[in-house]
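Key result, reporting period 2: structure in, sequence out.
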């Protein structure tokens, strides 16, 4: 069956027999062919139908360097030849920090610990991911590091993927040779899902193409769209948006547009208006576990079309590109509110600073001594966010513990297509109420036009790599709080008793983002996807953040920290029965993660996974079907990727 679509610059390839494939970019036209396979039989395709029992005749563990089934050097060389030299064996950059290592170079190490982050070095590195602990702390970047730098949870080989063929060859080789396969885009994943010891990594980062489609028409959509390569980052899309005078839903600056973000749902500033990242998708090109390159869209491969949008990263295939919805430019107006509490100050203490950590004009901040007033004000502010949500807006906030029972609260409201005056009227009642509580912040007074975030001129983002990203050890543990928790005073109070306890007693930094990506907002396409149903009724995506010392923590300490945090998360779970958490910013050690991250979509996802990938080629922790395997961790860190991947019962 042919697909009837209007494609501006795309070819329609009908592969022999089965597949209708819409090629978005030239790099997808370069595909594995029979001559390649004749020259290197290790690249032959898989046939899921011939493998009815996923557990039959399959090895207990993936190959491991030195194991009898680890491919010999000449097999890697042959693979490299098939890949036209795109097989890399990168060194961990931090090797430069180890005086015991031949690669030691103090100048390089200092640069890594300093300026490297501003240059985008870490995002562009084929090996490194931004969260350190899954690697096993065997080569953290610290000055004059003790011990030896070893590969640990880093992959053995990396495929520098610049064509669909590279990806197909990697998948087929890994499957046929029993080698663990991982997929890396930007390396943002907080749960070690873009790395793995003893693996071959498919690095999709180089796939940077973007293309504007002024009119994209299918049975289910008519409007503007963009084709997005698998390696495109949010800031690159921002440049593109500026150049083309369009808006596309995007995450934070260096997060990938088409990798883990879409695969687990994905949120962005306009999520209450446009839905989640996965709700933007119109079509997906993907290499499946059998090595085939296919298109999944509402007409074709409907199982994968459903699963790839929210059903978990690195589970169903390697996405090469997507088509996403685009809109006329949408500008948002933002306002911040912030206040602090320090019960140790003399009662006469007055505002110390108007500064808040969020962007936009400042309404003021104040330091209180009255703890009750502080938390009452916090609760009122979060509840007021529902009014911004109703207009398609969102709220972005932190509560930072400062020690000695002092806390700072920063919170911004951001609403699309609204004038500063309108936003002021929206926020005014909150300020009146805060003032009544004795929270002495000035009433909203602002220059009328200052708040509109201007559309950046074309090219304004060029060279800006965003974020200052470098590897750290942030542990996210989170929960989606349903709108229902805001409905009655009693339940809202219980909700905040739980949250407050985790901040006051737990001492964690609280991060809350107020979003309402309902089914209505998602639209018919988005609503019928594998996204965690908990998102659809949520009002707050809330996290407890903990930044753990790099390399300075033993595995036992890591386990203690997990156990401690679990106590506080349990309080959150008690007040949100039946809800869940956002995988990408959730705890990789989440209990009952199947229900938490996927809700009642889980069984269908596992069914699709078994059918499409009976070999278990794709594996990442807390993805559908992943409980059949685990990493035999060498370092004892919970969730570490430093070890051999084996069937769970081994
Ligand atoms: C600084 C920072 C800011 C963030 N901001 C946001 C935000 O604004 N909104 C939000 O929703 N989340 C945010 N996140 C979380 C983010 O969505 C996740 O970390 C997400 O996993 C990033 O996806 P990636 O593809 O960029 O990263 P990676 O770590 O490279 O990949 C993540 C997962 O997706 C898989 N994957 C990657 N590419 C592909 C592909 N082509 N095909 C199949 N699987 C693939 C990987 O194997 C891995 O399992 C943020 C994270 C950080 C560190
Ligand atoms: C793959 O081949 C290229 C080009 O010949 C070479 O530069 C590279 O080092 C090879 N990779 C490996 C892992 O040997
Ligand atoms: C260390 O790295 C710096 C910067 O890349 C380089 O200039 C220098 O030659 C290196 N030193 C050694 C001993 O390799
Ligand atoms: C580090 O490597 C050296 C040389 O290979 C070896 O002698 C030493 O025992 C190693 N140290 C540790 C802590 O493993
Ligand atoms: C990946 O391949 C591209 C295209 O050949 C090349 O330009 C780039 O330098 C390679 N990247 C690495 C890290 O080798
Ligand atoms: C951008 O698009 C909007 C809405 O489609 C239009 O009103 C505006 O004039 C355009 N601006 C530019 C610079 O093209
Ligand atoms: C804080 O804001 C008020 C009112 O806008 C202003 O009068 C005061 O100078 C500001 N204080 C500081 C420290 O900026
Ligand atoms: C602290 O604030 C609460 C809530 O506004 C109020 O009821 C209480 O009287 C205040 N306490 C003091 C000592 O001012
Ligand atoms: C907490 O209070 C103690 C005693 O007043 C003081 O020594 C310490 O510096 C304070 N700590 C912080 C983080 O403010
Ligand atoms: C402020 O906005 C109004 C209406 O949008 C516009 O007429 C006016 O020129 C703007 N003023 C400034 C200083 O930009």
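The corresponding designed sequence is given below.
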């Amino acid at each position: 069956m042919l697909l009837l679509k209007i494609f501006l610059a795309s070819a329609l390839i009908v592969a022999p027999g089965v597949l209708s494939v819409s090629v978005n970019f030239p790099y997808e036209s370069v595909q594995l062919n029979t001559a390649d396979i004749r020259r290197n039989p290790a690249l032959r395709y898989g046939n899921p139908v011939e493998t009815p029992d996923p557990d039959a005749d399959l090895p207990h563990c993936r190959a491991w360097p030195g194991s009898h089934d680890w491919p010999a050097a000449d097999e890697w060389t042959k693979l490299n030849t098939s890949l036209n030299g795109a097989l890399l064996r990168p060194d961990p950059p931090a090797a430069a920090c180890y005086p015991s290592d031949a690669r030691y170079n103090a100048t390089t190490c200092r640069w890594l610990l300093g300026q490297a982050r501003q240059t985008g070095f870490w995002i562009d590195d084929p090996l490194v991911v931004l969260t350190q602990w899954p690697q096993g702390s065997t080569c953290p970047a610290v000055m004059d590091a003790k011990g030896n730098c070893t590969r640990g949870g880093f992959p053995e080989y990396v495929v520098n993927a610049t064509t669909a063929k590279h990806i197909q060859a990697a998948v087929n080789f890994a499957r046929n040779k029993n080698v663990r396969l991982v997929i890396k885009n930007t390396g943002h994943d907080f749960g070690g899902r873009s790395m793995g010891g003893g693996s071959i990594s498919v690095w999709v980062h180089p796939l940077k193409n973007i293309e504007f489609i002024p009119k994209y028409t299918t049975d289910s959509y008519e409007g503007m769209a963009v084709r997005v390569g698998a390696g495109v980052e949010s800031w690159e899309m921002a440049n593109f948006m500026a150049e083309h005078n369009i808006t596309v839903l995007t995450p934070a600056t260096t997060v990938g547009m088409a990798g883990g973000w879409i695969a687990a749902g994905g949120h962005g500033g306009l999520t209450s208006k446009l839905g989640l990242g996965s709700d933007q998708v119109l079509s997906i090109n993907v290499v499946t576990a059998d090595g085939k390159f296919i298109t999944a869209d509402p007409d074709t491969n409907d199982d994968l079309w459903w699963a790839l949008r929210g059903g978990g990263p690195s589970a169903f295939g390697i996405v090469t590109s997507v088509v996403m919805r685009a809109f006329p430019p949408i500008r948002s107006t933002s306002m911040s509110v912030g206040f602090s509490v320090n019960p140790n100050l003399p009662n006469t203490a007055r505002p110390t600073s108007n500064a808040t950590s969020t962007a936009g004009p400042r309404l003021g901040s104040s330091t209180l001594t009255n703890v009750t007033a502080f938390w009452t004000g916090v609760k009122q502010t979060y509840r007021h966010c529902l009014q911004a949500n109703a207009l398609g807006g969102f709220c972005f906030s932190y509560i930072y513990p400062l020690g000695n029972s002092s806390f700072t609260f920063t919170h911004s409201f951001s609403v699309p297509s609204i004038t500063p005056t309108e936003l002021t009227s929206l926020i005014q009642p909150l300020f009146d109420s805060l003032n009544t509580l004795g929270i002495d912040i000035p009433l909203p007074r602002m220059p009328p036009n200052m708040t509109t975030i201007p559309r950046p001129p074309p090219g304004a983002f060029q060279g800006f790599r965003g974020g200052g990203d470098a590897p750290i050890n942030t542990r996210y543990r989170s929960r989606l709080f349903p709108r229902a928790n805001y409905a009655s005073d009693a339940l809202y109070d219980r909700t905040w008793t739980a949250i407050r306890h985790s901040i006051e007693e737990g001492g964690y930094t609280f991060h809350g983002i107020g979003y309402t990506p309902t089914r209505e907002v998602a639209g018919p396409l988005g609503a019928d996807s594998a996204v965690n149903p908990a998102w659809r009724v949520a009002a707050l995506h809330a996290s407890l953040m903990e930044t753990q010392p790099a390399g300075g923590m033993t595995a036992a300490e890591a386990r203690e920290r997990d156990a401690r945090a679990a106590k506080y998360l349990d309080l959150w779970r008690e007040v949100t029965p039946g809800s869940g958490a956002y995988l990408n910013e959730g705890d990789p050690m989440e209990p009952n993660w199947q229900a938490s991250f996927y809700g009642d979509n889980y069984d269908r996802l596992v069914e699709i996974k078994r059918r499409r990938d009976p070999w278990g080629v794709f594996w990442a922790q807390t993805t559908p079907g992943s409980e059949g395997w685990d990493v035999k961790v060498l370092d004892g860190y919970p969730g570490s990727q430093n070890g051999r991947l084996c069937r769970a019962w081994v």
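The mean pLDDT is 89. Residues 332-452+472-588 form a domain with the Vanillyl-alcohol Oxidase; Chain A, domain 3 fold (CATH 3.40.462.20). This case is discussed further under Risks and Mitigation.
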